[in-house]
Amino acid sequence: MPRFSIIVPSHGVTGRLSQALDSVLTQSFGDFELIPVCDAPGSPAADVVAGYAERDSRVAPVHSPPSGGLAGARNSGIRAATGAYLLFLDCDDVLAPGSLAALDARLAETGDVDVLYAEHERVPWWEGEPTNPAAPLLAKAPAGAFCLDQVPTLTGVQLPAWSAAYRRAFLAEQHLAFPDGHFTDVGFGGLVALRAEKAAVLHQVLVRHLVRRQGSRLGLPGEHHLELLAQTDLVLTRATEQGLSAERFGPLFEQLFAAVLKTAAHPRRLPARRRAFFRLASRLYRRHRPAGHRTPGGSLGVQHRLLATGAYTAFRALRGVNQSAARAAARLPRPRMVRTRLRYARALRRPLDANLAVYCAYWGRGYACSPAAIHAKTRELAPHLRSVFLVEADQAHTMPKDVEYAVIGSAEYWDVLGRAKYLINNANFADAVVKREGSVHLSTQHGTPLKKMGVDQATYPVVAAATGSFAKLLARVDRWDYNLTSNRHSTQMWERAFPAVHETLEYGYPRNDVYYTATADDVARVRRELGVPEGKTALLYAPTHRDHHTGFESGLDLEAMCEEIGEDFVILLRAHYFYDRGAARNTGRIIDVTAHRSSEDVCLAADALITDYSSIMFDYANLDRPIVVYADDWEVYRELRGVYFDLMDQPPGPVARTPGELARVFADGSWAGAESAAARAAFRERFCQFDDGRAAERVVRRVLLGEPPESIPPVVPIAERVPAPAASTLVRS
Predict the structure, then answer these.
(1) Cβ-based burial of 73 (10 A; exposed 0-12, middle 13-18, buried ≥19)
(2) In whole angstroms, what is the distance from residue 120 CA to residue 130 CA?
(3) Which of 96, 238, 430, 676 is deepest in the core (most CB within 10 A)?
(4) In whole angstroms, what is the distance from residue 98 CA to residue 23 CA?
């Protein structure tokens, strides 16, 4: 039997799950079992946990349906546990170094207590000093094991479940489990303290709680706050049935109702049912108020008396904070020009147009990427919607003739932004854009992240300086209702990079649909348009942008490379879109396709891809054509830009570090050999999970037509997908 069982529920937060698991597995004390609780096999968390279980026999995952919530997940972990003591860890928190050794040593001193309370830290997500809210609650505890009658203020309801270790046999004997619903820590903590005969305290931080930017789920608005009353009623009813002494019942009552009063006075938590919450709380207060109870002094005492009498109007006058002025200020548009500001303000006062959808790609560079793919599918599946694309004035001439558009900054631009119900972008709308109640914002992203993104860039000075204000970035992210991903890696990294309250849609990237829907005729047409000579093998060279460079530097002498690899090859040069000068610069066997509007067309035309660290490799992998990585400055790029994984350990094909190595890869045929195919197959399995040709359809049905998740077409397994054919005959993986 292991000394400890550490139970880690993982529903809804997987971006930092690895960090939580690593914090346990790297403990100096090794006599434990680690029980991650996942939704189901194949869920994002289950994929992460499976790798750990393969590498370490102490990892024993179990499954619990999302409908069971946090309580169900923890109870599933309790049922599976075999350790002498149980610990709970949220999947975005970490176990402090040395915690298990300290717990074991403390238990050796105190004997087998029923519950061992410990301190914890709340670590701000961005900046600020950590706090230790448990320290003052535990400060008056006796030095050794004690009965909780000795510390009446230690009721358990103010401490989270992961701030203690629990004797498993005690929980079983007392039939203690986490109560269903929200605020389960309040119910569990209170019940444990009521039934525990012996407790002890460890004056050391056990868990570092990483405070999420979007806050706890319990802080979000909704009727789930009514469940706080149910947990309060449960604990106080059990205390009464147990005949809890007045010395202990009084502090328990006051601590529970302190939480109730805080919620009752919080306008954001209960936007619709504050009066109903107050009335229910008032009845509960009168039912459980102990005889002779003395109300606290000051403002808190006034709140107690108002709650006891059910005087909601007076309570609201005292504690309610009128948020209407703040909300109105937050909604004020902030375009620079006064006339524009007034026009936008008028648009915002008009009703939302439920049949208006606005699209934008690459900050207005034209009709491109996933917004264009969704736009096209919307016209097919939802023709009743009016769709308007936003474009910069100097790119308006590139718009297809049958696509309605508005020039960025124009009067029409602000009108449609003010009234549209649906706003779809692969980057972000301007800071001045207001998120209206009832509007739906969809972020499609425009690639799979290898390099650090969002707030993860903050520790890399060069890119952080280029990013600008992270506060403004996050204000833009806060407008999102949905965020698209094309693989589980992206799901996890976007969660870290863009911490906010939005729903992740694992539907694939709509721009990649064409890689499965294009025909041989489409490929031939694009090659003719780009000027690829008949019978030649086209190599797409697509290097990424480097933040530490001031302009485009290819890193390769392409003319010299053409000479070395032979006459059968031509090179399609596609620089990062930051360096699009609007005109091709063709020389000899090098065809400049930087200015071509569609990166998807360029990929269809190419028989193979050469890239360094560009996210184009993840999209191109859908075509199951050879990919060669030219990594002449990987170490510099990794240090200055930051990356999420080591591409050199998991490349999609051969890796060349010098021009000579790159030329040899093509000269000896290894670019299209068996090893290249094997590496590509593993890469596709990991990064092409949700791209199957139907991503745009899934988005339109779910976001624009409001169809329920269960009716959305499922993702086609990768083995059953048929990519668009290549012009050259190549060995496929």
Answers:
(1) buried
(2) 10
(3) 676
(4) 10
Distance CA 239, CA 256 (A): 12
pLDDT at 324: 46
- pLDDT the model gives residue 337: 58
493 and 449 Cβ atoms separated by less than 8 Å: yes
Report the distance separating Cα 679 and Cα 253, nearest Å: 62
Q: For residue 72, what pLDDT is reported?
A: 95
Give the span between the Cα atoms of 681 and 688, in whole angstroms. Answer: 10
- Torsion, Cα 629 633 634 640, to 10 degrees, reads -140
Euclidean distance between CA atoms 136 and 57, whole angstroms = 39
List, as own/partner pairs, every contact residues 477-481 make where C-beta atoms lie below 8 angstroms and the sequence separation is at least 24, other chains included. 477/428, 477/443, 477/502, 478/435, 479/429, 479/433, 479/435, 479/441, 480/441, 480/442, 480/443, 481/440, 481/441, 481/442
Give pLDDT tens digits for 84-103: 999 999 988 999 999 999 99
The residues, any chain, with a CB within 8 Å of residue 129's CB and separated by 6 or more, are: none
pTM (whole model) above 0.90: no
- pLDDT for 127: 65
Residue 411, both tokens? 């009067």
| C-alpha–C-alpha distance, residues 463 and 548, integer Å | 8
Contact (CB, 8 A) for 108 and 211 = no
Q: How confident is the model at residue 5, as a pLDDT?
A: 97
3-state secondary structure of 224: helix
Paired tokens of 161: 């479940």
Contact criterion met (CB below 8 Å) for 460 and 478: no
Report the C-alpha gap between 218 and 225 in whole angstroms: 7
The secondary structure of 15-65, three-state, reads CCHHHHHHHHHCCCCCCEEEEEEECCCCCHHHHHHHHHHHHCCCECCEECC
683, two tokens: 């890469």
SS (H, E, C) 680-718: HHHHHHHHCCCCCCCHHHHHHHHHHCCCCHHHCCCCCCH
Q: What is the pLDDT of residues 191-246, one digit of tens each?
A: 999 999 999 999 999 999 988 777 676 777 788 889 999 999 999 999 999 999 99
pLDDT at 641: 87
Report d(CA 501, CA 478) in Å as an integer. 7
Helix/strand/coil for 205: strand
Q: Are 628 and 665 in contact (CB under 8 A)?
A: yes
Q: Which amino acid is at 519?
A: T
- The pLDDT score that the predictor gives to residue 320 is 46
Residue 406's pLDDT is: 95
Pairwise CA distance, residues 78 & 7, whole Å: 8
How high is the pLDDT of residue 295?
Answer: 84
* 295: three-class secondary structure by DSSP: coil
Q: With contact defined as beta carbons under 8 Å apart, do 608 and 667 qualify?
A: no
Strands 199-210, 655-656: pairing kind: unpaired
Helix 298-309 to helix 274-288 angle (10° resolution) is: 90
- Residue 479's pLDDT is what? 94
